[in-house]
Amino acid sequence: NLESAVLGALRVKKFSVFASGNNGLEVAQTHGWSEKEKFRIRIVCEDPIFENISVEKKVLCIVNEDYEQTLKGEGILAGPLIDPEKETVFGMLKIEEMNFMDLNISSIEAFKGLCDLIGVAYSNASRHKELKAHSIYDSEYPNLFTYQFYEVQVEFLKKLCKKLNEPLVEISITFQEKKSTEVETVLSNELYSSIVSFLPNTSQIFLGDRNVGNVLIVIPAVETKIGTEVINTILPVIDSNELLKGNKVNMQLKQLNTYEEKRCLDNEQQFPKN
Fold first, then answer.
1. Which stretches does DSSP call E strand in 22-140?
2. Contact predicate 207/215, CB 8 Å
3. Which of 139, 149, 138, 135 is nearest to 218 (CA)?
4. For residues 141 and 153, is the Cβ–Cβ distance under 8 A?
5. Under DSSP, is residue 200 helix (H, G, I), strand (E, B) or coil?
6. What's the maximum distance between 2 C-alpha atoms anywhere in the chain?
7. DSSP, res 257
8. First to last CA, the chain
9. According to the model, what pLDDT value does residue 266 have?
């Protein structure tokens, strides 16, 4: 973690990490600070420290008399945390206390290198988060569409089914008891594997938002009557599964759009899927 990285690279007693905000820099993490510490937890935009760090992207050290005046007792070293891809400052690393003998050219260069490494790590984490937010699949749930994709896809299906005057139903399956993330991952994947062959051909299966359901099954071109039959079919399948039985589930059926019931297609021929 960040604390271990700083302590591993530098022999310091007190340091802090600030994050950029609307009104300047705000403290996000501290190490070694006492309850009576007088260091500021917010550096406003008008402050010379903010100007030097966030605008001019300078590394400040009290060895330089001008920078010592800028820091005004707030620290020994301060440097910008920069996203190398966007070239924007997202925070500040500040050293408040270290042994005087440890403050030398080598430690200053190590501090600069540490700021760069934190910037790269932040950039990689942001990119991973962004990719995951827009991903269709989650690496931990290889067979389930992500909830982010669900939100987009459901809106598309609503419009499509409305245009074609087709029904659209959703079945949410939620484990009644709260599970750990690891257990929930295993159970959700097992849930998919056990029921997928009993679902209509048009079904799309998503990982649910934890406030909505563990699994969300969206079924276009299927009426609520068939949705009820789906539930009645998969419930005993879940109860007979060695891994799933004993984990009580709630199932809810919801119609997602309105339509005129003028179709005479034999939906039962699509269900169950062979």
1. 24-31, 42-44, 60-61, 77-83, 88-98, 137-138
2. yes
3. 149
4. no
5. coil
6. 86
7. S
8. 50
9. 40
Q: How many distinct helices (H) and strands (E) make up the chain? A: 7, 12
Residue 220 contacts by C-beta under 8 Å, 6 or more apart in sequence? 157, 160, 161, 166, 167, 168, 202, 204
For the beta sheet containing 141-145, the strands, ordered from the edge strand earlier in sequence to the opposite edge, are 137-138, 141-145, 204-207, 215-220, 168-175, 249-255
Q: 64 is written with which tokens?
A: 């330089």
| CA-wise closest residue to 53 among 24, 15, 96, 14 | 24
Distance CA 48, CA 69 (A): 9
CA distances for 241 relative to 187, 191, 216, 238, 256, angstroms: 11, 9, 19, 5, 30
The pTM of the full predicted model, rounded to 2 decimals, is 0.51
- The residue among 40, 43, 63 whose CA lies nearest residue 55 is 43
> What confidence tens digit (pLDDT) does each residue in 94-153 have?
999 999 888 999 999 999 999 998 888 887 776 666 656 656 777 778 888 888 888 888
Query: Amino acid letter at 148?
Result: Q
Identity at 62, one-letter amino acid code: I
Residues in the chain: 274
3-state SS assignment for residue 145: strand
